[in-house]
Design goal:
The structure is a homodimer of 235-residue chains.
Chain A: E1 3-6, H1 15-24, E2 29-31, H2 32-36, H3 38-47, E3 58-61, E4 64-67, H4 69-80, H5 87-111, H6 124-149, H7 165-180, H8 182-188, H9 193-203, H10 206-212
Parallel strand pairs in A: 1-2
Antiparallel strand pairs in A: 1-3, 3-4
Protein name (chains A, B): Glutathione S-transferase
Keywords (chains A, B): Transferase
Domain GST C-terminal (chains A, B): 85-232
């Protein structure tokens, strides 16, 4: 039976980290809000009670719903065998995945530093200051960390020759940063050869390549997490 | 053998969510940086390589290190039996715990909206705007969500009569919000009776009460996540 994925239908956003792993692992899923619209997502989320997702994305399997990107991916990896298959390594992958989630939250906060409930246009000055901090301090700190995580097993993937959810997520993260900060990422580009090799290896996986060339894959845009506002970028 | 907990020694911060569960479950741990200082924490973190923690808190068991509050707590709950002991329920607890982590990150961003690398004094104007958004929109949205999660099993805890890491974390979260936003939380107080009952039940656990009365427990202060800046509070 196919999983139901619920996420906003017009952006890659956080949902894309889940989609990429589902596609890479050839797992059947229905992208419900892309079939039925954003109103159906809001209705589904509001109809849930008790222990339930706080926000999209969430994945539904029968009566069971699971939310948060890192949590969904760890669960899928365990069920579908694209983790390490060894508890301490799988737990280390989750630590990495949660750090990716933290960086994604910081990326969103760059263009919405005052609050997600306000328009970007109402917080542009604060965003410009936040972007300078993020470009200078945070991007190198996070990318150095991921570069380091790719060293012990020889690459191209974190676990070595087999991909995991961390690798597909690193591709999306780096592509998003390149979309949002093309100048800054060009400056930093050469510093992270293992990360570059990992992204190329993920992009070269047949199922990932087919997915990214399909109309199932939504392009980055200015409604999403990674937004290209030229005024927020700089070398 | 006792675990090593590594976290900043002068604030409750994110470490406190881990400490509370360790104390409630009577698990032996050494709070390393409180014994050896913040420099020892920095040195320990910098000496780690490969798949490693990005930031404190992290918990060390022999050669294995695990980071991120929700991840540490899920792992401890599984090992020491303070989760549900049933996979779907345990996964739902993790969804809740990750939502607590998201709220904690938003709390920090209220007083540091431009960036964690700048002083509060250099971002006070943006912080005042962020605080208004957070008080009005985010606190009620998150607290309503947790109130709802406490309903299905009849309380006082999320699972019913037995505490889990989510309950100890809800106490710390609510206490932190009361410290940071005393006026706002007084206004909202009556709206969440299940959350209030949960907090009282956790605070009434003998080991939690003994810990909070001890000098092992660090008081909230203006170096931490939850900071009382009166200018950020309002009814």
């Amino acid at each position: 039976m196919a999983y139901d994925l619920w996420y906003w239908p017009n952006i890659p956003g956080r949902g894309e980290f889940v989609r990429l792993a589902l596609e890479a692992a050839d797992i059947a899923y229905r992208d419900r809000a892309r079939e039925e619209g954003a109103d159906a997502l809001v209705a589904d989320l509001q109809a849930r009670r008790g222990l339930r997702p706080f926000a999209p994305p969430y994945l539904v399997d029968g009566d069971f719903a699971i939310a948060h990107v890192a949590h969904i991916l760890a669960w899928l990896a365990d069920r579908h065998g694209f983790g390490a298959g060894d508890l301490p390594r799988d737990l280390e992958l989750i630590t990495l995945q949660l750090t990716i989630s933290d960086m994604v939250a910081e990326v969103h906060a760059v263009h919405h530093p005052i609050g997600a409930g306000l328009y970007y246009e109402d917080q542009k000055e604060a965003a410009a200051r936040a972007a300078a901090q993020f470009r200078e301090e945070r991007i190198p700190k996070f990318l150095h960390y991921f570069e380091d995580a790719l060293a012990p097993n020889g690459g191209p993937f974190v676990l070595g020759s087999g991909w995991s959810h961390v690798d597909t997520s690193l591709l999306q993260l780096v592509e998003g940063l390149r979309y949002m900060f093309p100048q800054r990422m060009e400056t930093l580009g050469e510093r992270y050869p293992r990360l570059q090799a990992c992204c190329e290896a993920v992009a070269g996986l047949a199922r990932v390549a087919a997915y990214r060339a399909s109309d199932r894959c939504i392009a980055f845009n200015e409604e999403g997490i990674f937004r290209h506002y030229p005024e927020l970028d700089s070398r």
